[in-house]
């Protein structure tokens, strides 16, 4: 399988994440990329390549211009800063709703972000854009029919990022970048099996009939992102019926996950898409420090088989997965089963 790498991933190095008023070590770290790459190299059968030079053109189709400019300028501001504290930009105040009168630096940090897990650092813009360009390249290979399956190895992840807000470690929505490009060639389904609801992808395509978004995840009653991912969110306007959520209880294991996965796959099939984007998180694994599910490593092969059996040209995009000792094996199992 061809693997498109984010060549800039290591430029984004979170010093920590803010949880309940304290800064704790960041779960989302460069080592995630390295362990996945090492596992794929050890497994064999994967060809690694870099995308063409990243360009903002990759993200303008799905992200608002003011948001893209904010990420670019805030990253540059962090890069210029001498004071170490000013090299990390954290939001402190959030708007009650988007407010066009918010223009000051501190206002924008909240305006364009929805949590305290997602700081802007000197390399954030370059790194996030590298991932988006890798996703764009993978989508173009699939759209051209050059490949059946292409995997995008990237971090920071993307599926929580909305049109104009970062959050959940995500800045540009890589899966949405891929889906948007594929949608030019035919209907697209996004299947998101990260343990967290793919709120960003849902939000970006919520009123569109040409892109189905389907997510299986921890019930937002108890798991991040808390405010979306409920089963009654089914799309709006022309997109009514083109969104499906399968929330599952904390502690979910194979017995509970399997029927939800089957229902999610059935929703994808009913839509009759021409292309699939698989937002592939490994954080539903039993060892994940933040997921709360109990799936064993071998179940990731079953996920991959389910994706393969959908039978569509597929872009696979790396999302979460935070246990560095099991992440590589989960991803390898999933990808091998997709390509089997
Ligand atoms: C892409 C992705 O998987 N984003 C996940 C963002 C979730 N961030 C929430 C982190 C919460 C950490 N809480 C620590 C509790 C550990 N028991
Ligand atoms: Zn996740």
UniProtKB/TrEMBL annotation:
- Identify this protein by name: Histone deacetylase domain-containing protein
Q: A GO molecular-function term, please?
A: histone deacetylase activity
Q: What Gene3D superfamilies does the entry give? A: Histone deacetylase domain
Query: Which keywords fit this entry according to its UniProt record?
Result: Hydrolase, Metal-binding, Zinc
Positions in coiled-coil regions: none
- Cofactor requirement: Zn(2+)
* Similarity remark: Belongs to the histone deacetylase family.
Q: Which residues form the Histone deacetylase domain?
A: 28-336
Listed under GO biological process in this entry are: epigenetic regulation of gene expression
């Amino acid at each position: 399988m061809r693997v498109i790498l984010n060549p800039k991933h290591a430029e984004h190095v979170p010093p920590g994440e803010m949880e309940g008023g304290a800064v704790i070590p960041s779960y989302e770290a460069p080592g995630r990329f390295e362990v996945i790459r090492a596992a794929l190299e050890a497994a064999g059968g994967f060809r690694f390549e870099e995308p063409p030079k990243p360009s903002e053109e990759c993200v303008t189709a799905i992200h608002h211009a003011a948001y893209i400019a904010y990420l670019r300028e805030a990253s540059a501001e962090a890069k210029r800063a001498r004071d170490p504290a000013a090299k990390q930009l954290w939001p402190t105040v959030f708007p009650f709703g988007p407010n066009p009168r918010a223009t000051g630096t501190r206002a924008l940090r909240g305006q364009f972000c929805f949590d305290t897990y997602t700081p802007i650092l000197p390399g954030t813009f370059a790194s996030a854009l590298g991932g988006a360009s890798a996703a764009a390249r993978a989508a173009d290979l699939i759209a051209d029919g050059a490949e059946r399956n292409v995997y995008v190895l990237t971090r920071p992840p993307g599926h929580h990022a909305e049109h104009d807000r970062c959050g959940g470690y995500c800045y540009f929505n890589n899966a949405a970048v891929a889906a948007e490009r594929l949608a030019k060639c035919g209907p697209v389904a996004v299947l998101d099996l990260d343990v967290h609801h793919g709120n960003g992808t849902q939000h970006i395509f919520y009123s569109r009939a040409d892109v189905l978004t389907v997510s299986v995840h921890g019930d937002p009653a108890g798991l991040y992102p808390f405010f979306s991912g409920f089963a009654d969110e089914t799309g709006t306007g022309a997109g009514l019926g083109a969104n499906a959520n399968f929330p599952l209880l904390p502690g979910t294991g194979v017995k509970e996950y399997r029927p939800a996965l089957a229902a999610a796959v059935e929703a994808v099939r009913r839509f009759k898409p021409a292309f699939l984007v698989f937002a592939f998180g490994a954080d539903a694994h039993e060892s994940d420090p933040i997921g709360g599910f109990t799936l064993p490593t071998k179940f990731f092969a079953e996920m991959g088989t389910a994706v393969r059996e959908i039978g569509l040209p597929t872009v696979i995009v790396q999302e979460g997965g935070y246990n560095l000792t099991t992440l590589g094996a989960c991803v390898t199992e999933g990808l091998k089963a997709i390509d089997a």
